[in-house]
Amino acid sequence: MERQELCNALVDWLREKVREAGAKGAVFGLSGGIDSAVVGVLCKKAFEEDCLGLIMPCYSDPKDEEDAVRVAEKFEIPYKKIVLNSIFDNFISILDKTDNKTVVANIKPRLRMITLYYYAALNNFLVVGTGNKSELTVGYFTKYGDGGADLLPLGNLVKRQVRELARYLEIPQDIIEKPPTAGLWKGQTDENEMGITYEQLDEYILTGKAPQEIAEKIRRMNSRSEHKRRLPLKPPF
Ligand SMILES: Nc1ncnc2c1ncn2[C@@H]1O[C@H](COP(=O)(O)OP(=O)(O)OC[C@H]2O[C@@H]([n+]3cccc(C(=O)O)c3)[C@H](O)[C@@H]2O)[C@@H](O)[C@H]1O
Ligand SMILES: Nc1ncnc2c1ncn2[C@@H]1O[C@H](COP(=O)(O)OP(=O)(O)OP(=O)(O)O)[C@@H](O)[C@H]1O
Asked: Hey, what's the signal peptide range on this chain (predicted)?
């Protein structure tokens, strides 16, 4: 599909799904990264003023917050900033301590999910998530954290296609080129943590081609994360 055609189709799809739900708009987290910038611009095109970008720093890099504000202002996306630092601190202070940084870091996307659903209910909006096909394929998201959403407009696009769409939408170049990161701890990057590059992952998803070792790793990650892409299991009786 041509980029313009794809953009229009996604905007129409968002409107249709929101209308079918009896809702009137969309709320989404604006992180300062490319995925949420694309989602924000698509939602603005679909719902005009009936959309809301939430900027929710939780000990996040201040540069990301600046980038999120820059996107919101450039595209006139209504936005609100909600700092989650103190609720995060309070929350971990009542939990058992652990050295497992992923377990602790996953609280951040889950606090954002709670905040997004609060504003969704307040405004009769749906929560629009930013997950793309590359992340979904290998389960690179927090279950019921950033994975908790009502609609995933980028869910059938690999990261490379999201970048193409971002260029078409005129997302600032430096945001398109930032190394993708979940921002859960200092220095984290998606590619380092996953142990594969988006180029390898996207190529495998689109063509089935990858060096054997990489293909096996992707298949393993896909199979281990199956539980994140389905509803919780229930007994068959
Ligand atoms: N077989 C199974 N059947 C049913 N449930 C199963 C299960 N295996 C684990 N689980 C459950 O899943 C939990 C583990 O999943 P989860 O809590 O998500 O934890 P986990 O997958 O370990 O961590 C999330 C990963 O996503 C990354 N991330 C997070 C947020 C945003 C982004 C991004 O770039 O956008 C990336 C993050 O850096 C980390 O590597 C277990 O604690 C367990 O409750
Ligand atoms: N500080 C934040 N404020 C608001 N929303 C956030 C923030 N951090 C993450 N999110 C939300 O969670 C989603 C997952 O973001 P994350 O930063 O983990 O990686 P990503 O998948 O590379 O997305 P992006 O390219 O938008 O940063 C974001 O797209 C955004 O919707």
From this structure: none
169 within domain boundaries: yes
- The alpha helices in 79-130, defined as continuous H runs, are 85-93, 101-105, 107-123
Residue 190 a catalytic site member: no
Q: What percent of the chain has pLDDT over 90?
A: 95
Is-contact 175 38, C-beta < 8 A?
no
Residue positions in the annotated binding site for deamido-NAD(+)? 110, 143, 150, 227-228
Question: Which residue in 50, 65, 135, 202 is the catalytic one?
Answer: 135
Q: Is 154 in the pocket of ligand 1 (CB under 6 A)?
A: no
CB count within 10 Å of CB 183 equals: 20
Residue 182: the pLDDT is: 84
Q: Please report, for the domain that includes residue 79, its CATH number.
A: 3.40.50.620
pLDDT beyond 90 at 96: yes
Identify whether 135 is a catalytic site residue.
yes
The total of structural domains in the chain comes to 1
Indicate which atom in ligand 2 lies nearest the CA of residue 38.
26
For 20, the domain range is: 3-229
CA distance 28 to 127: 6
- Amino acid at residue number 13: W
